[in-house]
Amino acid sequence: MIGRSKGSKRIGFAALLAALVVGASLTAALPASADQPPAAADPGVITDWNAIAVNTIAGPAPNGAGLNNAVGVMWFAFAQAAVYNAVEGITGDYDLYDWNARAPKGASPEAAAAVAGHDVLRYYFGSNATIAANLDAALANSLARIPDGVPKDQGMRYGARAAERLIELRANDGRDAPITFDTPVVPGVWRPTPTAFAPFLAPWLSQVTPFTLSSDNQFRPGPPPALDSALYTQEFNEVRDYGSNLPVGAPGQLRTQAQTDTALYFSRDIGAGPYQAGLRDLATRHGLNISDSARMFAAVDLSLADTIFAVWDAKYVYGKWRPITAIREADTDGNPDTAPVPDWTPLIPTPNYPDYVSGLSGVTGALSQSLARLNLFDLIVTSPVGTTRHYTDPVAMRTDVIDARVWDGIHFRSADVEGAAMGVDVANWAVDHYFAPSN
Asked: Which residues of 335-359 are buried (b: 16+ CB within 10 A; e: fewer)?
């Protein structure tokens, strides 16, 4: 995994802060009482450290690990789970995630959140010296805004414990396992696609221990439509006629300009950094307090990670070919109602993993449903192509992404429909079983 060092060691908290020369020395004796009022809980620390996490995980080298893809979406959950516990273990507003250790009364949740986010990211990505230095500088900046004193020191210590707990929970969770996709190549089965012909991206995602689900196959759908079925023929014709890279209005191209705009909006890894930016904007516009902001990011990002695992389970198990292969090689599918188009090309490049089910549809389903369950769905997202949309109806957003991925030419419709439904199921499960208000 990029940015991970198997030989990395947990950062000694006191040593780290001494090296950074931030705050009071943690090696000094603390006062016996922490009766002074805690520092004001500025929720900006939550959005700040989400942005730092996104830049660290998904940003380009040398300042980031370049994981602007499904693997990166997984990593967001690591940081947000630790930040969530660091905050809620102090405020007591929501149940902790797989932990029962509480902070001393009066500890600073801001200090705890900053240290938790820093320590998790530094543990997994700190083997890159540039990333490590950036994280250390960001932590120093966050802590400099918090008044020195016992609440700050206690928050820092508790944040370090929250990070250690998350790292402990995720040890030996199946990341980077030596799993390969070796299903024999026959009609209907995925194989590397033009133009890159890259291998299946991270098939190990199909077998990572989930954050909230009982198993990665908990919401596995039934198989995709059979190649000789009427539904397959219908979906084949749809993606062929609406998903090619031919100009709008060209013979054989039925996609309108409005449909093209929607297709391009949901492209180029919008599900990674741009969705996170939308969450930060939402938290700011709605004035979420530190507890509610930490909860929102955790509920969404753990749902997204588990959706990625569930999606990859289906991709790995069913291994369905992509439209570009199906359309170019239709003379091999045994279906008399499909015909090959040898030079057919989709609107956008085909990602290097199987069709069924759709990852972006799944992630969008989980994002929209988790926010809806928290009564927070009001999302403004700017796509990597530069256009911005404001969604206030989660069903409308899911409908658009389902259509878009067909019009992009990279999915059959059933892959999108099932992916979005899977994301909704995962989000419902996560919110039903975690992140509840504390009694």
From this structure: beebeeeeebbbbbbbbbbbbbbbb
Domain 203-433 has CATH 1.10.606.20: yes
Q: Tokens at residue 84, please?
A: 């969530």
For residue 164, what are the CA distances in angstroms to 11, 13, 64, 375? 10, 11, 22, 31
Instruction: Write out pLDDT tens, residues 404-428.
Output: 999 999 999 999 999 999 999 999 9
Structure tokens that stand for 83 in this block: 């930040």
Helices (H), 347-393: 359-373
* Helix/strand/coil for 327: helix
Task: Tell me the C-alpha distance between 77 and 53, whole Å.
Answer: 10
At 183, phi and psi to the nearest 5? -60, 130
Q: Give the up-direction half-sphere exposure of residue 422: CA atoms within 13 A in the CB hemisphere.
A: 35
Q: What are phi and psi of 389, to 5 degrees?
A: -130, 150
Q: What is the pTM of this model?
A: 0.91
pLDDT band at 89 (very low <50, low <70, confident <90, very high): very high
Q: Over the stretch 288-297, which tens digit does the pLDDT of each residue have?
A: 999 999 999 9
The amino acid at residue 25 is S
β-strands 388-391, 379-382 pairing: antiparallel
Q: How many CA atoms lie within 13 A of 101 on its CB side?
A: 14
Q: What torsion, rounded to 10 degrees, do the Cα atoms 325, 327, 333, 334 define?
A: -170
CB atoms within 10 A of CB 390: 9
Across 202-209, average pLDDT: 98
DSSP class of 380: E
In this predicted model, which residue has the larger pLDDT, 347 or 26?
347
Q: In this structure, which amino acid lies at residue 231?
A: L
Contact of 47 with 280, CB cutoff 8 Å: yes
Overall size of the chain counted in residues: 439
DSSP bridge pairs for 244: 346
Instruction: For residue 311, give every residue at least 6 positions away whose Cβ sits within 8 Å of its Cβ, in sequence order, or none.
Output: 70, 357, 358, 359, 362, 363, 419, 422
Residues 266 and 402: their CA atoms lie apart, in Å, by 10
3-class SS of residue 438? coil
> So what's the architecture of 13-169 in CATH?
Up-down Bundle (1.20)
